[in-house]
Structures are given as structure tokens and as C-alpha cells.
Write a structure and sequence with these properties.
single chain, mainly alpha, DNA polymerase, domain 1, 7 helices, 53% helix
């Protein structure tokens, strides 16, 4: 039987277990889903994941060490993750996906909500 670590580069047993909880048990499934969606799925099922998993997943797909991915592809992966989460939220119609334009409007002439004052006490400076 081949060494499982050779089949899953950059991914140790705990990472593979997190992926299994998310329904990803083969490299073919990981290739089909992609690193960002796989990370989001693992996080959604309640696995205790950090961004290191995202770097490792991308490294498994590209053949790069996770440290290189973290250093050179961090921003693009974080932007892709943000976009993925935004689209996922929009699909389910969660309140987080609503924009300000969708928020209920205050009827014309209705009083505005008052905000509580910041503080009634001035900030005291230290004696010199």
C-alpha cells in the first residue's frame, strides 16, 4: 500500500481528517472542489481549522510547499476566500449578504434614531 502522505502532499493526518468531515476523501475530489471551497467546507462542518490548512490545500494542488503558498499567494487566496464566502452567503440569502440598499428605509419625515452620547466626562490628561 502506498504511503498516504505521498498521495496527500502538504497534508497530515489531522488535515485529512478535517477534509473527510467535509466530505473530501480523495485528491480527485480536492482537485474538483479547489482549495478555497475545501477550506470553507472544513470550516463550516466545525473542524478547528486555521489558515494554515488553506495554504496546505493550495500547496497540495500546486505542488508548492505550504510556506511558499503562505508567503507568495496569501493575498490572492484570502481574496478568493472572501469572494467564495460572499457568494455562499448570497445563495442562502443570509442577512450578512444584504447591502445597505436592501435595508429598511426610514419613512420620510419620521424622526431619526438617536445615538447615545459617547461620554459625558471629558478625557483627563495626566499631570505634567
Amino acid at each position: 500500500m502506498p504511503d498516504p502522505s505521498l498521495q496527500w502532499p502538504n497534508l497530515g493526518p489531522k488535515s485529512r481528517q478535517m477534509l473527510a468531515l467535509a466530505g473530501i476523501t480523495t485528491m480527485a475530489q480536492l482537485h474538483k472542489v479547489g482549495s478555497v471551497a475545501a477550506y470553507a467546507r472544513a470550516k463550516k462542518v466545525g473542524a478547528n481549522v486555521s489558515l494554515n490548512l488553506l495554504w496546505a490545500l493550495e500547496g497540495a494542488l500546486t505542488g508548492l510547499p505550504w510556506q511558499t503558498v503562505a508567503r507568495e499567494h496569501r493575498t490572492s487566496l484570502l481574496l478568493a476566500l472572501e469572494e467564495y464566502q460572499r457568494r455562499s452567503d448570497a445563495k442562502v440569502g443570509s442577512p450578512a449578504s444584504r447591502s445597505q440598499a436592501d435595508a429598511p428605509k426610514r419613512p420620510r419625515g419620521a424622526p431619526r434614531e438617536r445615538q447615545a452620547p459617547m461620554s459625558r466626562h471629558p478625557v483627563q490628561s495626566r499631570p505634567r
